[in-house]
Structures are given as C-alpha cells and as structure tokens.
Amino acid sequence: MKKLLSTLVILAASCHLSIAQVSEQQKQQDSIANQILIVLNAVRNDPTSFIPAIDRYRTHVRSFTKDPKALDVAVKEIKAILKKQRPLTPLNVQGALYSAAQDMAKDITQYGTIGHIAHDGSDPLVRVKKYGTVGSLGEAITYGHMTPELIIASFLVDEGTPSRGHRENLLNPTYTLVGIALGTHPTYGRACVIVLGTP
Length: 199
Known about the structure:
Elements: H1 2-45, H2 51-60, H3 70-84, E1 92-93, H4 95-111, H5 124-129, E2 137-143, H6 148-157, H7 165-170, E3 177-185, E4 189-197
Parallel strand pairs: 1-3
Antiparallel strand pairs: 2-4, 3-4
Helix pairs in contact: 1-6, 2-3, 2-6
C-alpha cells in the first residue's frame, strides 16, 4: 500500500511539473507574441520607420526560391510601399482570433504542417468559428525567423508568395483585430501564426 501511495505521489508530482513547464513555455510564447504585435503596430503607425529593418532582413536571409533575384525584387517592392503607406489603425488582440492562431500553431508543432490548412482539413475561417464570430479575416504564417523584427519583415517582404498575401494582410486598413501565436515546426524551427480580422 505504501509503495502504491509513493508511486501515486511521484506521478502526481511529475504531472504537476509537466503542467508547470507547459504553462511557463506558454507564458514565454505569449510574451514574444506581444513583442511581435508591438512591432507590427509600430509598422502600421509609422510605415517608413520600418525600412531600415527591411534592409537588415535582407542582410540576414537568402532567397528560398529558384529565382535568385526574387528576394531583391520583393525587398524593393515593400520599401517602395512603406514609403507611400499611410498610417493604419492599430490592431487589438481578440479572443477568437488568438485561439484560432493557437490551434494552428499547435498543429504546426505536432504535425509539421505547412500552409494554411491544418491536418484535419480546417481552414482559418473554420478555426475562428470554433471560438466566435468575425467579419472578414486573413491569416499569415512564417517559419524559421527568431526575432519579432525578422518575423514581421518576412511577412512584409513575402518573397515566397506570388500574391504577396501576407504583406497585404498585415497592411490591410480594414483589419483592426488580431491573434498571434507561436509554434515550432519540426524542420524549420519557430513558426509564427497571425490571424487578422474585422469585427
């Protein structure tokens, strides 16, 4: 009986430790997500101020497309856009968007998902509707960038997306709500999911 009780105590302690570790990890990720939001809102408030960050991004990354000129083209595009971009409304965190971003970040971590369709076939709208209602929405996902500045720069440069959809989402003047979450892709490292929307 004593042996059984000892085993149960050990299991309970291990479970408590595991939960505490997960909670601490989530706190760290939420802290980084908040820093990402600060950078994103700074870009929206003063677009031209982020041009030096785009230049720093260019020195830190290599093109991941077959066209070696693609990165330089995308960098030139976004710098021209930021010079002309008017200030935008700041984004505020909204619960349903945050939860939807969390779900996708967990999917990336667990299943190595690439793109906007989760392993269960759900798309961004389906994920958001699990938690609430929203008007229009857009989702942006990037992989492998560690700092908030590089993450936002990668979305804005958006080299690997011909439509520049991530860039358009972050600079969309109609979006006022946001949810940001982080995960870890098994191959590409840190993943950042940003879900933006209107009320």
